[in-house]
Design a protein that fits this description.
15-stranded parallel beta sheet, F-box domain-containing protein, globular, alpha/beta
Length: about 575
């Protein structure tokens, strides 16, 4: 009886297990080969977002076979549309094993168009066609494929989970037209990403009809991302944005990029649902209603601030005046922060993620005398030290620490922060590449290599070091590897930013030290090692990759293993 019950529930159990492989394409492909049941459970996950295989970073290098899935989708075209494709020499499958279009869950405008363009450009049949058709004809064909794909998704009753749309896109009219005709396609959206682009002197598409349609036909959104490159032009959609927010019954997260339309949150319907707000590159200048906005939010658990502006006394005072806890979970700063200590006294105990970039003198001050510039530089250094010391004093729960554009003065304060947070610290990134060539890079790198290894926690999920390492003398590199032998690091990344050829850089010597102190000790699970971008990666050395694999260490590309905490928060 017990065995019978277990076997009857096996499909449901397998389905739950396979859900954990959602982002692991390799594992999902393996599941397909087990048997018919496993295949039936894995295929929908593989086809939720196949367009994610291509993005701006790999558009030129992606292999053609990886985007052949477009042809599988197009097999669902009606006969008339297939004839149109045949004129271009495209031959499609007569039938498919699964209804693949019905599985699509994520629709990103740029990803789809990039995939189509890559598919068109790489198919052998098109190489001769593209030699004599002009750009307009090529665009017409791309638009035809784009529109065909969206129609196929709608006609096969796909239900979107994530929708990323921008009004400045060559195919916006296609998306808008088809979506406005099909409420079933978008009614179940959980994650909405809207990028409003308005350029001076340029025509842009009106996104308001789409926002109004979403307000009327979709009330299940749990996360909304809003971006605008022009805060003045953003005012034209404030009313529609407010309507959209008010129409949602379960809105949990809002992300504001470049502009904070605070009026959209005042007296909204999300006061008892909204638990996360993220501000990115937002200027808080002349915003005087922060206390009122945050007092209304009854279940707010996380506030994230990324490189925002005008974090002055007025901003801090409004936060201090809030009677509720201000649960600041992330703070990434790149400019002087007035009254930082007052803010951390209120919110420092909540802070888990901290990123710091060395402050720079404003361009408006470049015409000042050398004396004044030196005085300003001294003030910036003092502000940097005060910031890191305040974080060290008030924030003991730091899990993610990112240090960019550091100098010889603030690096020691950063070391103290690492020591003070070692019980919680799990992600650490020290990156000199952001200001490479503007300071004594090698000296700063030497300081890191000589002092970091011995203060690392016993276990790290992630460590990224982007430094300028003298490959003629690897003594300091070896010191770091020796001193960090007691630390297990799941994902370890090295990026040597110094310029030169592979022979001059001594890449082989660095790899040999990595083998000696990391590979043989098996204290890393994933490793990425890259010299200056023009000089290749360990990932492309097949024999080396196999050797590391024999020690249970997987070699990956640096950019693939690199973690952007900003993207983690935005896409969570």
């Amino acid at each position: 009886m017990t065995c019978s019950k277990i076997f009857s529930e096996l499909p449901e159990l397998l389905s739950e297990i396979i859900q954990y492989f959602r982002c692991d394409f390799s594992a999902l492909h393996s599941c397909i080969l087990v048997d018919r049941l496993w295949c039936r459970l894995a295929i929908p996950l593989l086809w939720e977002n196949p367009f994610s295989i291509i993005h701006r970073g790999n558009c030129d290098s992606i292999e053609h076979y990886k985007i052949r899935f477009i042809e599988i989708y197009l097999a669902n075209l009606n006969d008339d549309d297939k004839i149109k494709l045949n004129k271009y020499g495209v031959e499609l499958l007569s039938n498919t094993l699964f209804n693949y279009p019905s599985f699509i869950k994520h629709l990103y405008m740029y990803s789809i168009s990039n995939s189509i363009k890559k598919w068109v450009a790489t198919i052998e049949k098109f190489k001769r066609i593209l030699q004599f058709i002009d750009g307009t004809q090529d665009l017409d064909f791309t638009s035809f494929v784009y529109k065909s794909l969206i129609k196929i998704f709608i006609e096969n009753e796909a239900k979107l989970h994530t929708f990323k749309v921008t009004n400045q896109h060559e195919h916006f009219d296609i998306i808008s037209e088809l979506v406005l005709q099909s409420s079933n396609f978008i009614y179940n959206i959980k994650h909405l990403d809207i990028n409003l682009v308005v350029s001076y002197g340029a025509e842009t598409n009106d996104i308001r009809p789409l926002l109004k349609f979403l307000s009327s036909n979709c009330n299940s959104i749990s996360a909304i991302n809003f971006s605008s490159v022009n805060k003045h032009k953003f005012n034209i959609v404030i009313k529609c944005l407010s309507q959209l927010i008010n129409s949602q019954k379960n809105l949990k997260k809002i992300f504001f990029n470049n502009y904070f339309p605070y009026s959209a949150l005042l007296d909204s319907n999300c006061l008892n649902n909204l638990n996360t707000i993220t501000f990115s590159y937002v200027s808080f200048e002349n915003i005087n209603c922060l206390t009122e906005v945050f007092e209304q939010l009854n279940v707010l658990e996380s506030i994230h601030i990324f490189n925002c502006f005008s974090l002055d006394f007025n901003f801090v005072q409004q936060i201090i005046n809030i009677t509720k806890p201000f649960k600041l979970k992330s703070l990434f700063v790149s400019e002087m922060f007035e009254s930082i200590e007052l803010l951390l006294q209120k919110s420092g105990s909540y802070l888990e993620n901290f990123g710091f970039q060395s402050f720079e003198i404003d361009e408006d001050n470049n015409n000042r005398s050398e004396y004044h510039l030196l005085e300003l530089e001294s003030q910036l250094l003092e502000s940097e030290s005060l910031l890191i010391e305040s974080i060290t004093k008030y924030c003991t729960k730091i899990k993610f620490f990112e240090l960019l554009e550091f100098n010889n003065q603030n690096i020691y304060s950063a070391f103290n922060l690492i020591v003070n947070t070692e019980q919680n610290l799990n992600y650490l990134s020290i990156d000199l590449s952001y200001n490479y060539g503007t300071c004594d890079d090698e000296l700063s790198s030497i300081i890191v290599l000589r002092n970091l290894g011995q203060i690392l926690p016993f276990k790290l999920e992630y460590l990224n070091l982007s430094l300028s390492i003298d490959t003629f003398d690897l003594t300091d590199f070896e010191i770091f590897l020796k001193n960090s032998q007691n630390t297990f690091i799941k994902k370890l990344l090295f990026y040597n930013i110094i310029e030169g050829t592979r022979e001059k850089m001594g890449q082989d010597g660095m790899i040999n030290y990595i083998k000696k102190y990391i590979m043989k000790e098996e204290r890393v699970r994933y490793l990425a090692f890259q010299n200056n971008p023009d000089n290749g990666e360990l990932f492309y050395l097949e024999d080396e990759v196999k050797e590391f694999k024999s020690h249970n260490i997987t070699i990956q590309k640096y950019n693939d293993l690199y973690i952007s905490f900003f993207n983690m928060i935005k896409n969570d």
